[in-house]
Amino acid sequence: RLCWPGSGAAAMDLFGDLRRMNKRQLYYQVLNFAMIVSSALMIWKGLIVVTGSESPIVVVLSGSMEPAFHRGDLLFLTNFHDDPIRAGEIVVFKVEGRDIPIVHRVIKVHEKGNGNIKFLTKGDNNEVDDRGLYKEGQNWLEKKDVVGRARGFLPYVGMVTIIMNDYPKFKYALLAVMGAYVLLKRES
Amino acid sequence: LRKNVEDFTGPRERSDLGFVTFDITADILNGKNGLQTFWNKNTLIIFDWNVKQLFLYLSAEYSTKNNALNQVVLWDKIMLRGDNPRLSLKDMKSKYFFFDDGNGLKGNRNITLTLSWNVVPNAGILPLVTGSGHVSVPFPDTYETTKSY
Questions:
Q1: Are the beta carbons of A88 and B122 separated by less than 8 Å?
Q2: Is B32 within a domain?
Q3: Closest CA–CA distance from residue A168 to any residue of chain B (Å)
Q4: B58: domain range?
Q5: What's the alpha-carbon Rg for chain A, to the nearest Å?
Q6: Which of A63, A76, B70, B73 could form a disulfide with A107 if both were Cys (CB 3.0 to 4.6 A apart)?
Q7: Does any domain span residue B7?
Q8: How many structural domains are present in chain A?
């Protein structure tokens, strides 16, 4: 058997392990991996149910809410039906027909007796309100446009998502490493 | 507080536009206990290690025939940790246009101005706090045609 220096020896051992693993062990590892993925999905779906928001955790993509939030910060949202929309709240909304959620502050609210609300938003760091961002001819946002209200926040953590988006190779590399680790680690 | 109401052709159909000038006196604590006067009430707000900034805003809240509840932010300010926690602003004009959705400002006797703030932590919960102390402002029954402000 050839002798490889340093980490080379570990790599040789790894591939040796792989070949020696019998089918049953491989299936076990795969099932383990599937369980981890399913648990993660269940936690995410659980969060969606508990918060009432279709996207309970979002990453801030622009600097329009600086200095409060910067690109890469993580926001935790709730979207309870009974929570009224009030001036000063930070809402995450989607403009009709667009996919990208926007995080801005409510600066005007007009609510009718029957609960019908229309409101206007503006980014703290922007000079003007968001009318330019809304759909053509749309002057107000409504409850249905809201993804959630920002209740909590963690700085920097969301940067990983942005990097993975901007550099897909990084995303694949990360997934490959994670997959390899889970499939190959042995439970002793 | 002085107020005028002008009928203005805004970006949309004719709506009431209100002009308000105001004074703000606020004492925002810096982590120590003590009596603070804040618009004649006592209040306690703390700039601690986990507070990155306060986003302060003055909002006008009122009811009209058209809408049961209206809230318009007239002015806002970002107060970073380390900034002077005492506000003593006099004769401020509203930063944003006080447009009503319709003509509900004329003759409206009960517009309440409140100072509130959003506490932005370094990490954690984002609470919205309303200051204790608010002022009621009535608008006159007629429109002003003078454009001076």
A1: no
A2: no
A3: 28
A4: 16-27+50-103+111-135
A5: 23
A6: B73
A7: no
A8: 2
